[in-house]
Specification:
Layout (H helix, E strand, L loop, with lengths): L1 E4 L5 E4 L4 E4 L14 H5 L4 E3 L5 H4 L2 H8 L2 E5 H9 L5 E4 L4 E4 L2 E7 L5 E3 L5 E3 L4 E7 L5 E3 L9 H8 L3 E5 L8 H11 L4 E5 L12 H6 L6 E2 L7 E3 L1
Amino acid sequence: MKITWLGHSAFRIETAKAKVLIDPFFTGNPAFDEATRQDAAAGLTHILLTHGHGDHVGDTIALAGETGATVLANADLAAWLGSKGVKKLEMGNTGGTIHFDGFSTTFVNALHSSAQITEDGVSHSLGNANGLVLHFEDEPTLYHMGDTDIFSDMALIQELHQPEIGLVPIGDRFTMGGAVAALACQRFFTFGTVLPCHYGSFPIIDQTADTFVAAMDGAKGKVAVPKVGGSVTV
């Protein structure tokens, strides 16, 4: 499995059967290099969304139209995307699992909000925020936490899914900060590989992973901190 960080919370996951984007926030993302957009979308089969904020839905509508990729989102967000012209949609909700060729995705809890402000200035709720657990055939299980704080039921996510790879928000202000994120990883999970995210993009969130990396010092498992556009193979 090849995992490429595309800035903020956006990742590309590549396996033998699937080319997946999670939270593809490209346009307007200060950390994203537009020169890499073509590579990020190459062969795309699926787009998975953790919640409805613009910095996570990102370029989903355009990418779905360009590539024909299937989009997975919670039911409210999926319905909204359908109203915007997205054709291939799979909707679910917290606790549910959607099966695809080569992998499945389970919606789990996240402590966050989920909405879009329309052109008339009205905020519309787009369902609950989620984390996503991806179970692959013959590949490690991956957990994208979405935007969240620490919560004790992370222990149940570990018990039910035993994820080996964690994609963990660390930027503070809108999610847990680096020290709390490290506590979550060490108290509740047995990750073999952890990649931090949701930092280094907007100036009001943490610009580096230093706090997280320092707090993870001595923890079991590997902390990988690729540059934007950099990849890790596990």
